[in-house]
Amino acid sequence: MEERKDQARQTKMIGTALIVLGILVMFFTFTWGAILLIIGLIVFMAARAQEN
């Protein structure tokens, strides 16, 4: 149980990093930034669902 929560926390951190990266990339190329942002959101939401 504790291990799964830890894994969800790590996944959430990866998702957050992807979201931040997506926002930064958006300043240069909007399309790639949007793609990274969407992937980051999916990862983040999946981690939140797994945590509960």
TrEMBL record:
Q: Which residues cross the membrane?
A: 14-47
Keywords in alphabetical order = Membrane, Transmembrane, Transmembrane helix
Protein name per the record:
Uncharacterized protein
Superkingdom to which the source organism belongs = Bacteria
